[in-house]
Amino acid sequence: MLPLVPEAQSSSDCSPGVVQATVIVPARNASHDLEKCLRALRTSVGVDLEIIVIDDGSIDDTAETARNCGADLVISLPASRGPAVARNIGAKKAAHDVVVFIDADVQVFPATVAQLVADARSEVYSAVFGSYCEWPTAPGIVSHFRNLLHHIFHQNGSEEAETFWAGCGAIRKDVFLAENGFSEAYAKPCIEDIELGMRMRQSGHRIRLNPDIRATHAKRWTLRTTITTDILRRGLPWSQLLLESSTVPTTLNLGWTQRISVLLTGLLLVLVLAMGWLWPYSIRIPIGLLVMIQAADFLSMTVSMKLATRLLAAGLIGSAVIIGANFPFFASMCSGIMLPILLLNTHILYRFYKLRGPAFAVCAFPLFGIYLCCCGFSALAAIVIHGFRKMLRMA
């Protein structure tokens, strides 16, 4: 049994000058992460919190953990209905005028919630979201790459945001309810926050991306979850949403450099497939790359992160030399495509270099290429599906 944490002060006991807010935490089978999340929230300064945890049909002790860690209200759903439904239920129960959304695998800093509330209550913005910090807690090369990529996009993003992020964000309750909250069409963690942000923008509300607001992410990523999430949970539904709304934001990871990079990566993928068709032996090259990344990721979690990144970087450079020596024509064509991708994303790779060193920056390049491939595949699949549905409607 976890030790009890004193409940938050009531509104009448709130100290003068301390603002109030409701924090909504959706959680499914997240007992371990949730304990750290709630304990971090209880260290918040300058704000009196009402914490509502929505247990989204968990089969572990998530609800008990929430109660033992001092959640003011715990609502258990009999079956999983997704974070969109969970957040909507929590927001309707909120006692305060600002609703703060924090994911169960996110740990805030003491000033995080107060900063979110201050921005959400400003006369300029109706909502605000922050950024992951530079040091995610999940081990492994892939986990660090994914969480740092999210960090870099948000640190370099425009302050005038065109979407919303529910991992660490806040919205005025009246605005949230007027927009009917998150779309409950998304039964799994998906792009429900992005879709809400786009609707808010269409209604004339302004959303702020404040990179100074930070939180730590504890999510563990693997190569498999990275690819499936980027395609099924993010890229494909996001591309479909953009096609249906006929709007294409240019902020965060939808800027022109990213679009051109996706097109170039698609061209590179076609070249690799053509090479595999003409010389079947060469198909071992991308397979070998994935095996190297998997092995290095395992090594980084079990032995040493520094050793794993150095070995993977050396393996990638050595493989490039061997491929260049054995397939000079193929290597020169690939280099002609990869060089523009490298130049277009120098600022991203430079941030990896500054955050984790040269070896990690080398490792990040193929992982970033996999991310771009997922984006390109998602966009192409969305266009095909959209066109097919349009033909069906016209028939």
What does the model show?
There is one protein chain. The protein has 2 domains: 11-221, Spore Coat Polysaccharide Biosynthesis Protein SpsA, Chain A (Alpha-Beta Complex); 254-394, no CATH class. The protein has helices at 31-41, 62-68, 83-93, 112-120, 141-156, 173-178, 192-202, 223-245, 256-278, 284-302, 305-326, 328-344, 346-356, 358-394, and strands at 19-27, 47-56, 73-77, 98-102, 106-108, 127-132, 160-161, 168-172, 207-217. The chain is α/β, with parallel strands linked by helices. Strand 1 (19-27), helix 1 and strand 2 form a beta-alpha-beta unit.
> How many separate domains make up the residues?
2
Q: How does the major sheet shape up?
A: 9 strands, mixed
Rg, nearest Å: 22 Å
What's the count of strands? 9
Give the CA-based shape.
globular
N to C succession of SSEs: EHEHEHEEHEHEEHHEHHHHHHH
Separate helix tally: 14
Instruction: Give the CATH level 1 class of the largest domain.
Output: Alpha Beta
CATH topology of the largest domain: Spore Coat Polysaccharide Biosynthesis Protein SpsA, Chain A
User: N-to-C terminal Cα separation, in Å?
Assistant: 61 Å
| Strand fraction | 5-15%
The CATH homologous superfamily of the largest domain is named Spore Coat Polysaccharide Biosynthesis Protein SpsA, Chain A
**Could you tell me the mean pLDDT?**
90
Pairing-aware structural class of the strands and helices? Answer: alpha/beta
The CATH architecture classification of the largest domain is Alpha-Beta Complex
State the helicity in percent bands: 55-70%
Uncertain stretches of 5 or more adjacent residues: 1-14
